[in-house]
Fold:
Amino acid sequence: MSFFEKLKTGLGRTRSNISEKIGSVISAFVKVDEDMLEELEEALILCDVGVVTTQRIISNLRDEVKQQRVREPGQVRACLVEQLAALLESGQPEEQFPKVILVVGVNGTGKTTSIGKMC
Structure:
């Protein structure tokens, strides 16, 4: 298995783990409330999104849910996807040194090994 195949497999596991945890939180609730948002926050932190990033995502999600008057838990998933996409799109490449590369993934998916290979 090549390096990129291993990387693709690891990222696939990360994606399915995040989707599974978020899906289980959303399906456990009948209405959108503060408890649901707190459970989503916990799920994102457990998926190694990071505390500061998770707080920013949930804060923006809270505002969007209030602004759009979202009532159905299924609609929260679409709002969350928008928030995550906006967060990823906002990153701008820097042309200055030193550079920092963020490597994200679930425990045991080969992040450290991949970093060693990239170096």
